[in-house]
Each structure stands twice: as C-alpha cells, then as structure tokens.
Design brief:
Elements: E1 9-10, H1 16-27, E2 31-35, E3 40-45, E4 48-54, E5 61-63, H2 69-78, E6 84-90, H3 98-104, H4 108-119, E7 123-131, H5 143-160, E8 164-166, H6 174-183, E9 189-193, E10 208-211, E11 215-225, E12 242-243, E13 246-247, H7 250-253, E14 259-265, E15 271-277, H8 282-290, H9 292-295, E16 299-304, E17 306-307, E18 313-314, E19 317-321
Parallel strand pairs: 1-10, 7-8
Antiparallel strand pairs: 2-9, 3-4, 3-6, 4-5, 6-7, 9-10, 11-14, 11-16, 12-13, 14-15, 16-19, 17-18
Length: 335
C-alpha cells in the first residue's frame, strides 16, 4: 500500500453553516489549533524521507532521503525502528516555502551544497506519527493518543538533533492564536479534532480544518503565455530596455515567459483552462523559461482575491510550485 497523507479540509467562510461550526470549534475543548507550517510535506518512514508527491517515473512516492543527511543521522542514532512520521521540511521563520523548495527540488549533491554553503541545514517539523517503532499502525488511534506518543518521540530526536521540531499545540483562545499567526505573516492555522483518526488520502470534514482569510488554491500548470512586448510605464527616460527605438518590457527583453496558464480537472477527467497568473519573481521566471516542458502538468499554488461564479480567479498570482501534490488531486469539485 502506498501511504498517502490526510490533509486538512477547508473552511468556506461564505457558508453560514461553516462559520457557525468554526466558532463552535474555537470554543470546544475537543479541538486544538496548530500553526500552518509553510514548507514541503514529507513522511519520515524508518529514516527515509518521502515526498507525498508520486513520481511519474516510478509510480512511488518521491524519495529525497539523500538531501537531508543530518536528519537521517539523527533518526538512526535515536534508534526509532519502523516509525512513520508526518511533517514538513522547512526553514523555521521563513515567510514562505521558497527556500525549502531550493533543497527539496534539486538533486542530492546540490541540496547538500546549498545547505552547507548558502542556506544552512534544513529542519523537519513533526505533526503526527502514523506507525510505532515495532511497525504497528496508529492511524486508527485518536489524535490525542498519537500526540502523546509523538511528544515522546520528539524528545528522543531532539536529544540528537536541533533540526527536528515538534509542532506546537494551542488548546484555548484559538481565535486569538489565528490572529497572531496572520499578524506575523503566517499562512493560518489547522484546527484538529482530538478524537479524530488519521484517514490516508482523504480530507475528512471537521477532522482537520485549515483556517485562513485569503483565498489560495492548487492548480495544474498547462503552459506559458508570451510576455507583453511594449512597456507602458511612465519612466521612459530611465527605462533600460529598448528595442528598435521603442521601450519593451523586461521579460520580453530577456526572452522570458510572461504568465503561467493553469487549470483543474473536471468530473470527466478533462483538464479545464481557468486562467493565467503573474506575480513570478525573476528566479522562478527564468526557471520556467528554461524548463517549460518539465513543469507542464505539475501543480502550483496560487493566491487570488476571490473565485468568481464561472470558476475563474480574480487577480491570481503565483506562490510556489507545489512539490508534494499530484495533478490528479486538483479537481474543480475540490475547491
């Protein structure tokens, strides 16, 4: 069996019933809150680090164990046997997952070089444990039982490495905690039912619920639009990019892509065009330009002001390539 993650469902703040339920969860002792970590979702399976994304080549979860030798060494020293942890590869304090993807998205030697010479050693934040040391699955146990065991495991790992972190849990004043996370520029929180079990590959309603105030979504990259040619800004006198006596855009001048075309799958399994987005920094624009075929069919995360009645997005902007999600998971019905 290929292990798939359970992911949080989404609160729809446009539905009165969801809003009422959300306020109930804030007050209920049956729910706790955790910060939403902005990293790359990974399992730690017996010391191997597996992305939750399925490889197109092998059909198995992408194995990036070699990218994190410091984490593997600590796990082996802690002698944790066949434990399976669920968590995020991330840089603590980062406002987004950009630096994390620099490590998860490259080959082993380059990942190690970047950590040694540029970014520092990356961390792993644990938020669940799915199998114990002897190989017994814990997914049918309630969250509070798994959490107690996870705290013991985290203590052992922290003995050997500062790069293993345990997700903090907030049990009261959860709405204030959300405000604090948003004020700090964090993505939001996840509310978890303390009696909830772990259901691989599902997003069960009212078990884990993601709460944030800005619309974000995962979509499939379908292609790339060319850049606008003519520069229409006002600073002609100091504009450095000209061609045949006319000002041109920076992206056109450097031969880069303009925007990313995206869509989602409908109920018939057809990929439906939903728009194109900008908001791409120079590094990522260059990466897309040089490796267009590699990115077509992969998943990216966008943010937008809202979703319109026809399924399109108002002012969509690129956030990141979603390393740990499969294209077939991006359905129109999902949102």
């Amino acid at each position: 069996m290929m292990l798939q993650p359970m992911k949080p469902a989404k609160i729809d703040l446009k539905k009165a019933s969801h809003v009422d339920k959300l306020h109930e969860m804030y007050q209920s002792p049956l729910y706790v809150a955790e910060p939403k970590i902005d990293g790359c979702h990974y399992f730690c399976d017996s010391g191997r680090f597996l992305s939750t994304r399925v490889s197109k080549t092998t059909g198995n979860l992408v194995d990036k164990t070699g990218n994190f030798p410091h984490l593997v060494e600590a796990f082996l020293r802690a002698e944790l046997g066949r434990i399976v942890l669920d968590g995020e590869i991330y840089y603590p304090g980062a406002s987004n997952s950009y630096d994390a993807t620099k490590i998860t998205g490259c080959l082993e030697n380059e990942a190690i070089r970047r950590q040694e010479n540029e970014l520092g050693w990356i961390s792993y934040c644990m938020f669940d444990v799915l199998r114990d040391e002897e190989g017994n699955w814990l997914i049918s146990e309630p969250w509070y039982v798994r959490r107690e065991y996870l705290e013991l495991i985290a203590h052992r790992l922290r003995t050997y490495s500062e790069y293993f972190h345990l997700i903090p849990v907030v049990r009261s004043r959860k709405e204030n905690f959300l405000d604090k996370m948003l004020d700090e520029g964090r993505e939001g929180i996840v509310l978890k039912q303390i009696q909830g079990v772990y259901i691989p590959g599902k997003r069960p309603m009212w078990n884990w619920m993601k709460v944030k105030t800005e619309l974000e979504d995962d979509v499939v990259i379908m292609g790339f639009d060319p850049p606008e040619k003519r520069y229409t800004g006002k600073d002609y006198e100091n504009w450095p990019y000209w061609e045949e006596g006319e000002p041109v855009t920076k992206t056109y001048y450097h031969g880069l892509i303009g925007s990313v075309v995206f869509g989602k799958y409908n109920g018939e399994g057809e990929l439906v065009y939903l728009g194109s987005c900008t908001g791409i920094d120079d590094r990522m624009r260059k990466e897309f330009t040089e490796n267009q075929e590699e990115y077509i069919g992969r998943v990216m995360k966008i943010k937008a002001m809202e979703k319109t009645a026809d399924g399109r997005y108002r002012h969509p902007n690129f956030l990141m390539v979603h390393e740990d999600k499969n294209a077939f998971e991006c359905t129109i019905e999902e949102t």
